Amino acid sequence: MTHWEDFYNTHLPPTDFEDNRSLLKEFCERHNKLQNRIVLVTSGGTTVPLEHNTVRFVDNFSAGTRGSASAEYFLDHDYAVIFMYRVKSLEPFTRHLTGQQFFDMLDITDNGQSTSITVKPDSVDVFAPILAKYKQARESQMILYVNFNTVADYLWLLRAACECLAAFEERALLYLAAAVSDFYVPQDMMPTHKIQSGQGAPTISLQLVPKMLAPLASLWVPHAFVVSFKLETDENLLITKARDSLFKYNHKMVIANILQTRKHRVVFVSPTMSYEVHLSREQALQGLEIEEPIVADLVKRHSEYINGASTNRQ
Ligand code: PMT
């Protein structure tokens, strides 16, 4: 496996990296002065390009539902939110209005002289609260959006965000819900141009991506409340793998989930306990989202952690 430092020495940052770094710095400095709590929510999958001039890439299933919904609930709890998401995955607020749904909510009238567009009366009740929350979050500058595409983009942004979050110490929460690829083609092993089918089926050798949770938890943000997610498809492995991760990286919490049941059941695993959070069928039918109790629980645990740290300092 590439060592995490070698990764940064051998991979160029994305072209918009410096712009994003400035945005992160400005956002964090402002909220740190205000003594706000802050959360970094990572969301969506990462791509693994197979060519420098990328035509083909390896991807994964993540739609960004967990991250985008959670970002909204953290805003409800007065956290400043850095929403770090995969381009074209779901985003807070707009996630409620995907595809034709949005156009179906609108009416268009043309009287020959002018054209007007209005929200249909029966859609106002759905649209208004979402729009109000979006406006509130944007106008109060409580949310910053930064996006990535490839696994390398993600790793560069993650480190830059952590450099800015370190100053918050215990007030920072990291909520690492992105499905980050474990395998990739290093830049120096990638062909420049589109792989040609005329040359036969290619053999593509993937290397292990360094687990950035290691430097993140021990070096970059050692005082932050770091929560990672663990996704498995085999229930028998889930809790053991979550515990292994906790002992290996020494962070605060792992939220374990199974691919097929992730929208209504997760297991919180901390060094001292484990417990389940789930939605009943009735709750799911009523439109409740599991991210609401997940975030409420984490906010409580984060408060205990902050209070514990300040007691220890006295
Ligand atoms: O987006 P949705 O469709 O709503 O799905 C949500 C989800 C299933 C993606 C989410 O709930 C989830 O489980 N996210 C983490 C999935 C995952 O990548 O698990 P993992 O076992 O590969 O990684 C575990 C942790 O290590 C992750 O928090 C990740 O941030 C971290 N990691 C992973 C790879 C890597 N190279 N470095 C890392 O630090």
TrEMBL record:
<comment type="similarity">
    <text>Belongs to the PPC synthetase family.</text>
</comment>
<dbReference type="GO" id="GO:0016874">
    <property type="term" value="F:ligase activity"/>
</dbReference>
<protein>
    <submittedName>
        <fullName>Phosphopantothenate--cysteine ligase</fullName>
    </submittedName>
</protein>
<dbReference type="InterPro" id="IPR035929">
    <property type="entry name" value="CoaB-like_sf"/>
</dbReference>
<dbReference type="GO" id="GO:0015937">
    <property type="term" value="P:coenzyme A biosynthetic process"/>
</dbReference>
<dbReference type="InterPro" id="IPR007085">
    <property type="entry name" value="DNA/pantothenate-metab_flavo_C"/>
</dbReference>
<keyword id="KW-0436">Ligase</keyword>
<dbReference type="Pfam" id="PF04127">
    <property type="entry name" value="DFP"/>
</dbReference>
<feature type="domain" description="DNA/pantothenate metabolism flavoprotein C-terminal">
    <location>
        <begin position="163"/>
        <end position="263"/>
    </location>
</feature>
